[in-house]
Amino acid sequence: MTATNLAQTAASKLSQMSERTKQLGTVMQDPVRQKRVILVIVCIALLLDNMLYMVIVPIIPDYLEDLQKQAAQGVVRTNFTNGTAPKVTKENFDVQIGVLFASKAVVQLIVNPLSGTFIDRVGYDIPLFIGLNIMFLSTVIFAFAENYATLFLARSMQGLGSAFADTSGIALIADRYTEEAERSKALGIALAFISFGSLVAPPFGGLLYEFAGKHVPFIVLAAMCLGDGIMCLTVLKPFSNRERENMPVGTPIYKLMVDPYIAVVAGALIICNIPLAFLEPTIANWMEETMHSEQWQVGLTWFPAFFPHVLGVFLTVKLAAKYPHLQWFYGAIGMVFIGASSCTIPACKTFGQLMIPLCGICFGIAFVDTALLPTLGFLVDVRHVSVYGSVYAIADISYCVAYAMGPIVAGKIVHDLGFIQLNLGMGLANMLYAPALLLLKNVSKMKPSYSERNMLLEDGTTGLYDTIKMEQREKKKKGLCTTVDENGIETFAKRSFSEEESSGGEYA
């Protein structure tokens, strides 16, 4: 009897679990709930990527230094007190750190054109799942790496994973949130998670490294990444989704790159992120030399900037909802904020004073990113095909250009010209580029027309619908239009040439 009762209880529980699974599946069919869950998955992926990007800042330099000391003790048992050997070692150490930090952005920069095209072909869910898996592997390798070569491999793998996860995640948000106000809000939330990940990672990594060892912060991030990958697999079901079969063919990335409006936005994203990318590898040494700052102060320097960044995102989303035609103006304001803040950094004398311009930089970046990322999606909607993988790959390339140059170029500029000149140059570049956003002034007035549809069909018709439309267009060019009489027979009639050529209906 006991065995029978156990079997009945087990069967009852399995039945309940089956019912709950069905209910969850029914709930997930609701488009609003599905969009929210997708936003959560993407935000977690962006948070993890940026935490992994910045968590190594307080960990890896100290860890590599320990590895070098152990190697030196194993090979040479003498103590270096004077001479030129310490200088050579320090220079080599700085080069190693710079190359390691830049490798992620360099790999991401190389892979992004390919990942953008891949996303346009297969959809957004499979690349997102692939990216999360690669990020998980790279995080595990970071946790157990014991030499420079393994750390370099892990950092490069993270760049590969980010090229898929970041681009497909942002593109997925743009695809699911089609209304401009909704899209701006959703992308603003994603940007807030990016900021939080970047700014909370150094103190998070530093504290866990100090009290729990090198493995723990990476194991925590790997567990979060694994959980997000499971959510992606169960909610998005990337390998059973048939929606991608009906996806239109996206505009090739090289055509998007030569679009003047997209080029202006990409340039703004590069310029506005240069101060952040160039200061991250240089500001710690400057603080130690000029302020004699302690390690905890260096680690917490950027953390307060999270709050003005979120404030900037919030303000831009609210302003864009009321005045959507002024997106270019919000971006220009952000670049002026960044420029002014960069120029004031060298004048700071204390740790507290330095926080103010750093908050100004992050506040300005929030304005630029939150205003211009939705603009990229809108430009694709009205000037190209509404497939977003390639255009957000261009945005990711813009970020990577700044962050790939940062660890390598910034140190050289500081060495040759000085920290003051570096900041003045970055500030001036932002202020001079801000007027270029005037070119985006009329973007909000753009509407799809027959001419864009012609561009999409320039390689020939691909189906019955396009064939019929192309034939009708040729008849319209000759002054003829088709009508259908009562007997269902198609006839031709002269068309008035005052008729509008583009109503947007065909494109829609």
* Inertia-based shape: globular
Low-confidence stretches: 76-88, 449-469, 480-508
What sequence of helices (H) and strands (E) makes up the elements?
HHHHHHHHHHHHHHHHHHHEE
Structural class: mainly alpha
Mean pLDDT equals 78
CATH architect. name of the largest domain: Up-down Bundle
Protein model, in words:
- It is globular, with a radius of gyration of 27 Å.
- It has two domains: 21-74 and 91-445, MFS general substrate transporter like domains (Growth Hormone, Chain: A), CATH 1.20.1250.20; 465-508, no CATH class.
- The protein has helices at 2-28, 31-55, 60-75, 85-122, 125-144, 148-176, 180-212, 215-236, 253-257, 260-279, 283-290, 295-300, 306-322, 327-344, 351-383, 389-416, 419-433, 450-456, 464-477; strands spanning 480-484, 490-494.
- Helix 16 packs antiparallel against helix 17 (419-433).
- It has a two-stranded antiparallel ribbon with strand order 1-2.
- It has 508 residues and is an all-alpha fold.
- The model is unreliable at 76-88, 449-469 and 480-508 (pLDDT under 50).
- The termini are far apart.
Provide the descriptors you would attach to this structure in a database record.
mainly alpha; Growth Hormone, Chain: A; 2 domains; globular
Overview in brief:
The chain is an all-alpha fold. Helix content is 75%, strand content 2%.
